[in-house]
Design the sequence.
């Protein structure tokens, strides 16, 4: 299909030559309009579509959850979470590696992004592991890999965007991400056990379990640990929507930092709002331009034609889902999760539905496979973040992460083979 080649191939070509994603999407949209004979549409239509897209209550969840994560990254909140995780599982072989995964899983339920997880906990985790004598390569690898849990567990920004584009309940997607996220955490911890057992990585002797330390750090972390319960429980119980949950999380984070712990200064709060503003503007601008891109896709009929072709393929759905997963893994190496979801959801979801795939299951597979890109070359954001934190060379960071791709890929394969891993909990909760 010429139109599909222009939309996908042209867009990737523009990004390869170095154009910003938002500019590449805009140029591709106008090229597609001209080539397909729709060039008579007024240019003003693009701005109208952009404004109409951003006038959406659901999208408000994105800056709100980003704000909550930025505030939680200020002060002692992340330290309290990591100290509790260390006391809880630090007595095992490779204890700080396990604590790393547990802390990332907890923080994922507050931040919603891999980069926020790695930035918030990364330096703290690597510093603690270095002081205890852990291999720096192993510490870097497990820290980077555990950040992939961020976009899977609620409140995931990637799932918010997918749910909005695919017209799928965001609450159902949040619940659907819980079991795959927990499975990934357990498999990452299993890899730590395997590396320690084979002595491929030198790990210090475990410290004895101290119940009093668990209670002490648990008391210090009890209030931050309540945030995931507030977010998930509030959405599940129908007390507020996912968007309202973002506002509640941000307000709760401010109360913790400014009133309870008193380590959130006015200047730090201002910087948190500023970082949120800059990051949110970048994401929302891409969303706005991508909406025009998606509208042209539908107008030309690409999703409908692709859906018809996929529906005519005589292939078991599991193999079709594997093909989609391989495609997303490749795309994730070159584009961010949110950008990829914005560009490809309007194209692939109609095809997936035509093939009989569940939109909730498909969305979780899509988000997880795209999220792997944050720790794969050449453009993995978390890889560059680890270079800055550890001062290792880029190649060393990549080598350190490679073993931990095994449990992540295994999670994806299990999820594809067992759809109920994603669909069971939403069904039980009435979604």
Sequence:
């Amino acid at each position: 299909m010429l139109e599909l080649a222009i939309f996908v191939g042209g867009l990737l070509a523009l990004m390869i030559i170095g154009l910003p994603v938002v500019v590449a999407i805009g140029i591709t949209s106008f090229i597609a309009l001209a080539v397909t004979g729709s060039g008579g549409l007024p240019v003003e239509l693009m701005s109208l579509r952009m404004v109409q897209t951003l006038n959406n209550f659901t999208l408000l969840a994105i800056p709100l959850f980003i704000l909550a994560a930025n505030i939680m990254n200020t002060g002692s909140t992340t330290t309290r979470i990591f100290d509790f995780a260390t006391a809880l599982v630090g007595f095992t072989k490779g204890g700080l590696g396990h604590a790393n995964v547990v802390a990332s899983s907890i923080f994922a339920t507050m931040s919603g992004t891999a980069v926020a997880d790695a930035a918030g906990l990364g330096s703290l985790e690597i510093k603690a592991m270095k002081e205890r004598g852990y291999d720096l390569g192993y510490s870097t690898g497990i820290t980077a890999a555990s950040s992939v849990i961020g976009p899977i567990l609620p409140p995931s920004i990637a799932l918010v965007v997918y749910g909005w584009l695919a017209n799928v309940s965001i609450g159902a997607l949040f619940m659907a991400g819980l079991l795959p996220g927990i499975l990934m955490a357990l498999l990452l911890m299993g890899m730590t056990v395997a590396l320690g057992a084979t002595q491929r990585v030198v790990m210090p002797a475990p410290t004895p379990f101290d119940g009093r330390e668990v209670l002490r750090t648990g008391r210090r972390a009890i209030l931050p640990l309540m945030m995931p319960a507030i977010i998930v429980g509030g959405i599940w119980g129908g007390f507020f929507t996912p968007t309202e949950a973002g506002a509640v999380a941000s307000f709760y984070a401010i109360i913790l930092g400014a009133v309870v712990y008193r380590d959130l200064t006015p200047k730090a709060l201002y910087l948190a709002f500023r970082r949120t503003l800059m990051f949110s503007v970048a994401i929302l601008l891409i969303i706005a331009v991508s909406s025009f891109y998606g509208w042209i896709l539908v107008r030309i009929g690409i999703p409908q034609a692709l859906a018809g072709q996929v529906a005519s393929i005589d292939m078991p759905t599991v193999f079709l889902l594997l093909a989609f997963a391989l495609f997303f893994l490749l795309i994730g190496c070159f584009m961010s999760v949110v950008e990829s979801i914005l560009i490809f959801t309007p194209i692939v979801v109609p095809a997936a539905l035509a093939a009989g795939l569940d939109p909730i299951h498909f969305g979780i597979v899509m988000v997880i496979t795209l999220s792997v890109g944050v720790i794969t070359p050449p453009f993995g954001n978390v890889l560059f973040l680890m270079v800055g934190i550890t001062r290792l060379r880029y190649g060393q960071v990549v080598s350190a992460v490679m073993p931990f791709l095994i449990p992540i890929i295994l999670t994806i394969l299990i999820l594809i083979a067992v759809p109920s891993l994603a669909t069971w909990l939403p069904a039980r909760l009435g979604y």
Q: What stands out?
A: The chain has a mean pLDDT of 84. The first helix runs from residue 2 to 16. The two ends are 37 Å apart (CA to CA).
